[in-house]
Amino acid sequence: MKDVLDGKKVKYEEIDISSSSEDRDKMRELCGDPKALPPQIFRGNKYLGDYQAFANAVEDEKIEEFLSK
């Protein structure tokens, strides 16, 4: 994921939820899934999707569209 984002020159913030239960809980709340595991993709507080959704967008050559939803 980082390679794709870096290659497209997309600025992003990586948050390590293993060091903060507060960040983990927020991620799960924003996903709407109390058992969600990383990686999850957000734009601000807007949930864009999980790794599979990201991978599908890359494969379909629709990553810009995915990131701008």
Could you characterize what this model shows?
By secondary structure, the chain is an alpha+beta fold. The protein has a single domain (1-68), classed as 3-Layer(aba) Sandwich (Glutaredoxin), CATH 3.40.30. The chain is 45% helix and 13% strand. It has 4 helices and 2 strands, in the order H-H-E-E-H-H. The protein has helices at residues 2-7, 21-31, 51-59, 63-67; strands at 40-43, 46-50. It has a two-stranded antiparallel ribbon with strand order 1-2. A hairpin with a 2-residue loop joins strand 1 (40-43) and strand 2. The mean pLDDT is 96. InterPro entries: Glut_rich_SH3-bd, SH3BGR, Thioredoxin-like_sf. Pfam families: SH3BGR. Belongs to the SH3BGR family.
Tell me the layout of helices and strands.
Layout: H1 2-7, H2 21-31, E1 40-43, E2 46-50, H3 51-59, H4 63-67
Antiparallel strand pairs: 1-2
Oligomer category: single chain
**Span from first to last CA?**
17 Å
Note the beta-strand portion.
5-15%
Query: Main sheet?
Result: 2 strands, antiparallel
- Can you count the beta strands? 2
- Quickly give the structural class: alpha+beta
What would the average pLDDT be, to the nearest integer? 96
Shape: globular
Indicate the CATH topology. Answer: Glutaredoxin
Q: Level of helix content?
A: 40-55%
What is the alpha-carbon Rg in Å? 12 Å
CATH superfamily membership: Glutaredoxin
